[in-house]
Design goal:
2 domains, alpha/beta, Rossmann fold, 386 residues, 6-stranded parallel beta sheet
Length: 386
């Protein structure tokens, strides 16, 4: 039997959750013997060469995008679609999986025109910036014969897909999975020394893009409350994004510059997880947060917003603390509870690690995708015989 070829398609090369999932899945499927290719519409952060060096499968870029140039981008979109069509014709994959609404809208029609048998989209979340027109077009495409199925990464994203009027029989829930982080006393000591942390300092970490839905302003507000009575606390947001200047101004206005760090994008997140004592993700919107999963796998006590995506991972009081969203005082109180109780931090962290290793590994997630692909291929084959 001919080796199956899978094309994984994303909208942009950048540091983000959907991109992590794409690369992790591509790596796993290649290790299972599949012929794997990854493609992106454009290289947002100039990481193409780095990703190619780090990956064992080919990575293609089919288009380009320049902020603030709508006419040029419109023409570029046409050229990018043509380039993607040519790439798919050349590779002749049996399966394409697309990541996020933008990738679905571009990749699935191109794959349908090329006769790719299985065309799977994904739904990570209804992120801010999606226009009603784009959502409507995406729903029409997903509900049509162009799309074989759409994978929702959590119960939350499934509900959002339903809210977008995507037909329930089109949706398959497949939670994201991760490779659990390795923890090390040596790495912890080295990174804490590098950060200038003292033995009695308690380090609270957030890893996320600086975008409105992550609501990091509330963590900064909570830090302002906590640091008055807890001078040994240190905070960090590891990430970058359009709100960086605004968040920096907030930190400075509260006089927290020396105790609340905003270093931008970091390539040492696993080491930071080792160095941290508490992880906070007080987001308003999530699909299936990989950073929270990694923190749990590193046995960190987590304080997270009680939104559905986080409730899928965290049982309040057992594997972390869940806080109603939108109140910095409630977040500060939850963090203070963890600061005051090292034993609670340890117990929550141990249970959190068990949740990830038992339920949310990359192996478990990719096996579910493999079963979905096989079922869709089988259904396609049987329908062709009828």
């Amino acid at each position: 039997m001919k080796q199956k070829t899978i094309l994984f398609f994303g909208s942009q090369i950048t540091i983000g959750g959907a991109q992590r999932v794409l690369l992790d899945q591509a790596t796993w499927f290649q290790r299972q013997g599949y012929d794997v290719h990854a493609a992106f519409y454009y290289d947002k952060d100039g990481l193409l060469d780095t990703w190619r060096r780090q990956s064992s499968f080919p990575i293609h870029v089919v288009g380009s995008y320049q902020k603030g140039q709508p006419l040029k981008n419109g023409l570029g979109l046409i050229n990018g679609f043509i380039a993607l069509y040519k790439l798919i014709r050349k590779l002749s994959p049996q399966i394409i999986e697309c990541f996020t609404h933008d990738a679905n809208l571009l990749g699935i029609p191109a794959a349908w025109l090329c006769g790719v048998p299985v065309r799977v989209g994904s739904h990570h979340c209804t992120y801010q910036g999606l226009t009603p027109a784009k959502i409507k077009i995406h729903t029409l495409m997903t509900n049509s014969r162009l799309c074989s199925a759409i994978a929702a990464v959590s119960k939350m994203s499934r509900q959002q897909a339903l809210d977008e009027k995507i037909r329930p029989e089109k949706i398959e829930i497949i939670p994201n999975g991760i490779a659990p982080l390795q923890t090390s006393v040596a790495i912890r000591a080295e990174k804490r020394a590098e950060l200038g942390l003292k033995p009695d300092d308690i380090f609270i970490l957030n890893v996320a893009r600086m975008v409105p839905e992550k609501s990091q302003r509330l963590l900064i507000e909570a830090a302002g409350i906590l640091l008055e009575a807890n001078p040994n606390l240190r905070f960090m947001i590891a990430g970058d994004g359009p709100l960086r200047a605004q968040l920096t101004a907030q930190v400075e206005a509260l006089g927290l510059q020396n105790r609340f760090w905003l270093p931008g994008k970091r390539t040492d997140v696993p080491a930071l997880m080792n160095a941290a004592d508490i992880f906070s993700l007080y987001s308003e919107i999530e699909g299936m947060p990989l950073s929270l999963m990694e923190a749990m796998s590193a046995r960190l006590a987590v304080a997270a917003s009680a939104i559905q995506a986080n409730r899928d991972l965290v049982e309040d009081g057992v594997s972390g603390l869940l806080i109603p969203f939108g109140d910095a005082k409630l977040l500060a109180a939850a963090i203070q509870r963890l600061v005051d109780n090292p034993l609670l931090r340890e117990e929550l962290g141990q249970h959190a690690e068990q949740v990830i290793t038992q339920q949310f590994t990359i192996e478990k997630s990719c096996r579910a995708y493999e079963a979905l692909f096989d079922r869709l291929l089988k259904n396609r084959s049987e329908s062709n015989w009828q």
